[in-house]
Amino acid sequence: MFSLPRPLLTRTFIGATTRRHYASATRPSPVHLLTLADLTAGQIHELLVSSAQHKRDAKHTDKPPPQPLRGKTMAIMFSKRSTRTRVATESALACPRYVFGIAGYPAGRERVAARHVHRGVEHGRRDHGQGLWARGRRARHSTVPIINALSAKYHPTQLLADLLTLHESATNSLTPTSDYSAHKTHPSKTLPGLRVAWVGDGNNILNEMLVSMPKLGVHLAAACPNGYTPDPDVVQIAKEDGKRTGAEVLLTTVPEEAVKSADVIVTDTWVSMGQETEKQRRLKDFAGYQITMDLARRGGANSGWKFMHCLPRKPEEVDDEVFYSDRSLVFPEAENRKWTILAAIDALLVRGRF
Questions:
Q1: Could you state a single Gene Ontology molecular function term (predicted)?
Q2: Where are the domains of the chain?
Q3: Among 35, 172, 197, 296, which is disulfide-ready with 154 (CB 3.0 to 4.6 Å)?
Q4: 95 part of the active site
């Protein structure tokens, strides 16, 4: 089963540069999940295998679940408003397999929260099972493992959900009449060779796609307007990974070029929280970027192309015909936030070594 290496190169949550976080000389350095850039392809695969197994066990079997985290505590910290992430996290923690105690903390209280949820290391033991679930925070001050729930630069749990959804789609596990079989096939067999197109803002979702998909052998083409391109360092990571795996990485400003031969078309909101004052300018800048059947036809997407969006969706990003069609995977994608979050917690807090 998946376990993270120690020490792990982590990346700051905010900003374009990356750097190592050094542990205190008096205590071990915690292992964090801040971005999939820090994981190998094999480690990402194992998280997906674990996610599929958790989903299958919870939804498709009657066997009594274990409760490996009964009596443990995890703090959930948000500096931005959250609906899907918070619901997915709390439902994952409330799953009968885990039974967590949950403590909510305001942002900026990492050191206090760490003391409330982690006692073992400070007393010289290597206990594990406590940690922080943080949105928009840095890990440098934490003495316990942190899972990045979203930051300005990266969104690893969303990409895990997207990758699980792609894997399930490839194994026909999303078809209502089919038995769930995603846990029977390794994602190294289903993901390499897929062609994913991104049409939209060069935001944290695209950054995370760039540092994960080419590493897995997934071809990635991204169309972003001028002035909305992804961070240069993640583009460099993507190109280096693509050279090793044979995955193609294309950056363009033309949506039709990005969707050519695409198996999956992905977008996100163009006007996020805090950007409302820029809405009219952004809508003008993103003219022609709406996902439609006509765009897919003009660009030459594969006949069976699928659509994904991390939500919340606005009509200017994708029209109703696509969003509510059989091509749309957005609702399984949203559900899979729960199962991939569960796998990340299992990896760091149950099977980790701290």
A1: ornithine carbamoyltransferase activity
A2: 32-154+337-350, 156-336
A3: 35
A4: no
